[in-house]
Amino acid sequence: MTAKLFLLLILSLLFLGCPEDEPCTTCPLPNNTPPGKREYVWSIDSIDYGNLPSTIQLESIWGSSATDVWGAAGGAPDVRDCLWHYDGTKWARATEGTPITEPTGNKTIYAVWGSAKNNVWAFGRKINQNALSAFIMHYDGNKWIDATPGNVQVIAGHLYNVYSVSQNNIWVGGYECALHFDGSQWSAYKVADSVIVGSITGNEKYIYLNAYSPWGKNIQLAYILSGNGFKLIDKTTDAALKFAGLFWATNTELNSFANGLISASIITGGDIDTNSWHREFSAPTFFSEKIVQSHKNVFAVGQWNLIYHYNGTDWKQIFIDVPNHTVDPFALFWGVWTDGNEVFICDTENGVMYHGK
What we know:
mainly beta, 4-stranded antiparallel beta sheet, 47% strand, 3% helix, 5-stranded mixed beta sheet, Methylamine Dehydrogenase, Chain H
């Protein structure tokens, strides 16, 4: 739970477009693209817990379709609960037969993303003979393998979150570092000492990330990729809350989900106008996770039954209504994913997976 509470919790060097078979959250949308829907019929998915007592606590969710969905739960008390899969009928543990259950160290994953049902990535950490290191798994449609390259294995820290433009342009944030995959190899970037990269995001030209201190230093940092490294472009404190985590970049603004939404203008060269931060809307508590399916379909979820949706025009709070069920008013919503037609939202405190159709 400690890592989850700290995590407030996405570049190519040149964006020339996106493959036709992959959604692009940075590309301009045609004017006739319909906005994401807000009216759903909600239900609760069946969950197979097997013989383990833990509840489903997904922090990261990704699917190739609404009947092939993966979820990561790095904060689960038992590492056998850190990977789950939904087949259209029920959620079930999916760690058996993966590197997670191999007797080669203690491994867990915090984030999952893919481009297709036979190309899925998971990111976390492993501890082998008391040595902590970053950990990457890959799924080819049949089997999960340890896909951690040597230059990533030497990173003594966790990998927490993922932002992807395409299967050949993946960014991952972790302790003190950010990783980039260009389709053939992983590159590692040192961000700063003693910080966690809380989120990474990008627009058509630039990559941004936010970082914070897990050691009570009360700082929030904003960076842009510049040349061969990340350049600090703004900073604040938790108390001031000028901005915080969960960055989302458009071509004109850098947005931060911090007890609502705070935005700053992007200026020449990709920098931000540090005096332009302004609040778009306020929320009573913090957001834990977001999903940008397109610039006309964005979900942000968080503490106290918190769900907000952006349809390209405005933000609106959404409330889940399930027949004969009371949604916990203090629920911590965390993992969220949508394909534009269906949406999955995990209540990590109560082990409930809400499914909107």
